[in-house]
Amino acid sequence: MKIFYILQLIYLLQVQLIIDANPIRATKSKNTQEIYCPQKKTDSDIIKLFPFPVQSNPMLPKPSMTYGLMTNGKINSIEIINQKTCIPSIIFCLKNLEKLVINNSYFCDSTKHIGGKMEYLPEQIIKLEKLKTLKISHVNLTFLPSIIGNLSSLTDLLISYT
Description:
Layout: H1 2-21, H2 43-48, E1 55-56, E2 67-71, E3 74-81, E4 99-103, E5 133-137, E6 156-160
Parallel strand pairs: 1-2, 3-4, 4-5, 5-6
Antiparallel strand pairs: 2-3
Keywords: Signal
Signal peptide: 1-21
C-alpha cells in the first residue's frame, strides 16, 4: 500500500514538472478543449453566436445588462451579467479583448458547474493575450488555472463573492 502512494506522488510530481516546464502545453488538460475560431468572422459575428444577447456599444449600460464595447469593429471589453445560459468558448476567439467581467454567469465547457455557478475558470483564458482586466464575481469559483500567470498583459484581477 505504501508503494502505491509513493508511485502516485512521483506521478504527480512529474506532471507538475511538465506543466511548470512547458506552460503552453499545460493548456491541454482534461478541462481544455480545442477552440474553433472562424477565420472570416468579425467580432460582431462572433458575439452573435452567443446563446444570449450582447448589446454592442450601448449608450447607457444598465447594471444588469450584458454588453460589449467596440472600437474599429473590434470588441475590447465585454461584461456578462446574470446569464442563465452558459458563456460559449467562442468568447476566447475575441483576440482584442482587454476587459472581461463575469458576474453570476458560467462557461459552457465548465463541467463542474452547479446550478449555473462556475467552479473553475477554463484554461482557454490563455488565448486572450491582450486581456488587461479580469473581474469575476458571484460565482462558486474554487480553482484558477496556474496558466493565468502567463497572461502577460493582465494587470487587474478581481475575484469577489465566490
